Amino acid sequence: AARRMSGKLGGLTGDTYGALNEGIETVLLLVLVIIQYRL
């Protein structure tokens, strides 16, 4: 995702790092919830 953003925007800024961080956090929380309910 970082490569794609960097290619389209010409570099990475604090905003793009923040967006990547939020996306990764959301995915990890969803994975944890799925794992918890499967056990």
From TrEMBL:
Enzyme class, broadest EC rank: transferase
Gene Ontology MF terms: adenosylcobinamide-GDP ribazoletransferase activity
Family matches, as InterPro entries: CobS
Keyword Transferase: yes
Pfam family, one: CobS
Superkingdom assignment: Bacteria
UniProt KW keywords: Transferase
The keyword Transferase appears for this protein: yes
EC numbers for this chain: 2.7.8.26
Protein name: Adenosylcobinamide-GDP ribazoletransferase
